[in-house]
Amino acid sequence: QVQLVESGGGLVQAGASLRLSCVASGRTFSPYVMAWFRQAPGKEREFVAGINWNAGYTYYTDFVKGRFTISKDYAKITVYLQMNSLKPEDTAIYFCAAEKDIVPSNRLFTAPAYDYWGQGTQVTVSS
Q1: How far apart are CA 49 and CA 65, in angstroms?
Q2: Quick one: what percent of the chain has pLDDT higher than 70?
Q3: Is the pLDDT of residue 27 over 80?
């Protein structure tokens, strides 16, 4: 059974940085892609960033390009999200997601493409 556990959220002021981590457990788990989504109150879950596990390709949504960086530790099956220059509109619960099967590129940004999800970690950015 695969479990994803996020950590690193918190309350920060605008302009600050946070680093989220997500550890995947499961003896033989080998993801195709891992990603971060976020969900603000009253809004739908939205894609933030993703990384192809073997090839290392990265994907970002426009509103975080240049501020957020996704990376991975292959041996630890851990994905990170470095978030810089945080804004109040980045306030949300951040979820780690993973999928072991091949995901077509046009579905990478959609939540239903991912079978495995963490419980989420709260990020709050004050102005």
Answers
A1: 9
A2: 100
A3: no
